[in-house]
Amino acid sequence: MGLKTNEYEFQMLLGVRENLRDSATEKGHRMRVYVPFGQRWYEYSIRRFKENPNIAGQVLKSIFSSEKIDRESIGKSVN
Please, is 21 exposed, middle or buried when counting C-beta atoms within 10 Å of its C-beta (0-12, 13-18, 19+)? Predict the structure, then answer.
């Protein structure tokens, strides 16, 4: 497509496929990491799980993983 890295971004849920996120950002791709919140976060999350059941597996894997969350990087912009 010939786009420059500042002309697009990838978006991922926090905790899902973090190795893929890290690989993409190491290659210079911009990444937006997001977390559903607000009064209707649960409904949104269930809808997303129904759209892509693999997300549910990734979330569960992340929850029960022994890997620690790098809390310092949560507040940083991942560019």
Answer: buried
What sign results for the dihedral spanned by CA atoms 72, 73, 77, 79? positive
Each residue of 1-57: pLDDT tens digit? 789 999 999 998 877 788 899 999 999 999 999 888 889 888 888 888 888 887 777
Give 7's DSSP letter: G
Residue 33's CB is within 10 A of a number of other CB atoms, namely 19
Pinpoint the alpha helices (H) of the chain.
18-26, 41-51, 53-63, 71-74
* pLDDT interval class at 75 (50, 70, 90): very low
Euclidean distance between CA atoms 1 and 17, whole angstroms = 25
Structural contact between residues 32 and 13, judged by C-beta atoms closer than 8 angstroms:
no
